[in-house]
Design a protein that fits this description.
The chain is mainly alpha-helical. It has helices spanning about 10, 15-35, 55-70, 85-100.
Length: about 100
């Protein structure tokens, strides 16, 4: 069974909406696992910090996950809580990095 928080090499290749959906699902799986909550408990735009679901230490784990699984480099300029406040924000950061 495939780990829902892992993106394969094939999924990293540009393929439109399917890639974006797989990428967001992987980010969602990682955040939900880290927060220890079920899928129904969090919307993609929910602020995971305001909800008290994760810590600043988790952000470093999330940065590592994004770099390893999404194939991007998170630069110092990207290390802003706004880029990691929600599943949607992380996905948007990855999309910007991939488009650059």
């Amino acid at each position: 069974m495939k780990d829902s928080s892992t993106i394969s090499e094939d999924e990293r290749a540009p393929s439109g909406g399917e890639l974006e959906s797989a990428r967001r699902a992987a980010i969602r799986g990682f955040v939900l696992d880290g927060a220890g909550i079920g899928d129904d408990a969090l919307a993609d735009d929910d602020d995971i910090f305001a909800l008290g679901l994760v810590s600043s230490m988790f952000v470093m784990q999330l940065v590592h996950f994004v770099e390893q699984q999404c194939g991007v480099t998170v630069d110092a300029d990207d290390l802003d809580f706004e880029n990691f406040r929600s599943i949607a924000a992380v996905d948007a950061l990855v999309a910007r990095k991939l488009a650059a």
